[in-house]
Amino acid sequence: MAENFTDEGLDRLLNYAPGGAGTLDTTLYLAAITTAGAGPLTASTVPPRTTVWSTGYLTAGGEPVIGTGAYARKAVLNTDWGAAATNASGRRRTAVQQSFAASTAAWSNATVVGTALATASTAGAGVAYYYANFDDASTVVVNAAGITLQVTPYWQHDI
Amino acid sequence: MAAKKVKEAVAYFDHPEQVEEPGFYTLTGDTETDENGVEHESNFTPDSLVYASPDGEGFVYDKPEQTTEQATEGGES
Question: How many domains does chain A contain in total?
Fold first, then answer.
């Protein structure tokens, strides 16, 4: 599995500190990334750090079309995140498990390999902070109605 | 008559601090543009509850009459 911060996400963080500017994100949005992303993406690859999410959510990320099969980005509130704790060579915060809405039909890009953590609910806006595959390097195929994608997001800064 | 489709952005909310009922919501709030020219939803909040369209494409304002069986899959990311 792979995970990485994005350049645009790090820019936004650096804008907060030491830049001292910007509006804090109290809600972030989980987006599915799929094998339709450039590469193509696999269970062990994520979009490159230089990806611009607002224009690359579909081409680089392979995000399913919002609205098809009831796919929508999942809101993650700041209070969903647990306390920071040491993990390996860094510090990590893990959120409570997040459930996307159950599908009502196949998603337009059905083979999910991980998620993006983005600032916007809207396709074509915002930045992605972080991309990650599933920890077990699995894929989840949302190719029919009644499938609920559940993920437990984390966010880690390594030293 | 076909149900009216939602044209605004929609996200899925289920946190009790934000919504009484888990579901799809349109959003309201201000946007900000950062130094790179990227537009951000600055603390958007859920607005109106909407529903997945029975035809599998988009969202509608009125609750459709339907039931679905659910399965669960997933992992950590």
Answer: 1
